[in-house]
Structure prediction request, 641 residues.
Amino acid sequence: MFNDIAQYFRTDTLPHIWCPGCGIGTITAAIVRAIKTLQLDQNKVIFVSGIGCSSRMPGYLDFNTIHTTHGRALPFATGIKAARPELDVFVIMGDGDSTAIGGNHLIHASRRNIDLTAIVINNSIYGMTGGQTSPLTPHDKRGTTSPFGNLERPFQVLELAKAAGATYGARATAFHNQLLTKLVIDAYNNSGFSLVEAISQCPVSYGRRNKFKTPADMLLWQKEHAYKAGQRIGHEDDFEIGEIFRSEAPEYTKEYDKLRQRLKEVSR
Amino acid sequence: MSNPKLMQGNEAVAEGALAAGVLFYAGYPITPSTEIAEKMAERLPLVGGSFIQMEDEIGSMAAIIGASLTGLKALTATSGPGFSLMQENLGYAVATEVPCVVVNVQRGGPSTGLPTSPAQADVMQARWGTHGDHPIIAITPSTVQECYLLTVIAFNLSEEYRIPVILLMDEVIGHLREKVVLPDQLTIVNRKGPDVPPGEYLPYENDDSMIPAMANFGDGYRYHVTGLTHNQKGLPTGNPEVTKPFMQRLTQKLNPYLDRIQMVEEVLLEDADLILIAYGCSARSAMEALHIARGRGLKVGLFRPITIWPFPQKQLEKYVGRKFLVVEMNTGQLAGEIERIFGNKAVERLNRIDGELITPKEVLEKIGGLCNV
Prediction:
């Protein structure tokens, strides 16, 4: 299973830190398979992440990788992409990372429509700090900081990005692994800000507080509650997978380059 | 460019940055630093560079670190409140050893304070604003000419020692217009790249120089950058045996180079009984007062730390036994540092925190009082 993508890993950094049953590993493999399919130059691929379980991913990958500060992966990535637009920049964030502390950067990266391929690994919880409620924890579900159930309502992260100006949004899960690879490829091919929500399972910090006995139960939940566009919604927890939105808009770094060319012509 | 030229301090910073080869600016508007951003927005696209206005100062600091990792010289400018927001990522740049220059045109604080009035109240924030033990370089221009020259030097030090450099200005110097003479030739330093093939490259090598070679993202040297304590490959570790040499090198890496980093101006110190210590706008008032005092036969000198961090202690220690008067627009942030060196009996203070300049007259009065004793 692993040999086909081993060349993209710093194998000397393994084993990883993730708990048994965690979904981030399979999501990592799905993302790396997208890069393999796209045949991207390993020297030109940049992985940027914030802080949290999911943000440890770049450390295991053999690209130019940067593990930044909590919530700030997108502005770091913006600096990299604006400085060298020829680089292929992937941004890995968690749900708390990208929508709480980094929420402002998420809407502004969307608004700029800068050509980044961003992946939010949504496990509904702050895993690394032991299971606190995040802005994507569903209503009524339990975390260590919502011991009686979450009173707040979660963001719909893709709708948020769409409203802010992102030009591609998609959703898959750790269970729908091959779909995730395909969506990451489509996200990369979109010239503009692309956001893929990868729903993951955190059996240790979320599952055991929310009536999931095993990691397998959580994967089955993903399978049973996901539906594709046009299919009937059976339950209020159901969510759509696949491409959710796509639109056309000027991309930031291309617009900036046009400005440079225009100024060059004026000064001639 | 015609020489000499009339220029504003903030404008001179922008010109100095361009002369140093800056190709990336990210920032957020804040008085009294905004002219730097405006100038960069106008000039950078003309020279093939990039200007981006970020959503806040946290993002600005992040973006310049990202740009610098790809090999571009990168700048941001702000004032006190924005400087506070930059602190976490400033520490990230220190820990990951990414060169960049941060301009803080100081205004009155705390909080929103006095947005259009000068202060020198971020001296300690420049030194210890980010968490954890760390080295930092901060330099303080006193003239518009220095705004230009010290911006070039800030980039040079940053590139040479892989460290963020803070250009610690104040509202007076930022908005002052005066004559500058731009030199025909400047020394420009660029970061040292690796001289080994990618397989052998250690981005955080602990060698005798204490300053590892820096490969740019995208140039074939694939490595990891993290704010976690890391080994010589850049990979995270919590192992005390790896952490200790990393932290030792990080916190001591400027020590072999202090003579090249610490710049001071010394005026009439040889026979001075009383030594004024001042920097930035306050040094201008101190200088004026010194000349008037000398005209009256009072033996007064001026020690001006241009590099305020790391503080030029060795240069000042020569004057042990003299009396010192620290003139600054805060409650004594640098005076505390001088007291640490000489004890508090040798050190007098002249402070002002109401947004008004310390005038030469005030300095002179204080000198008069001290010299009569």
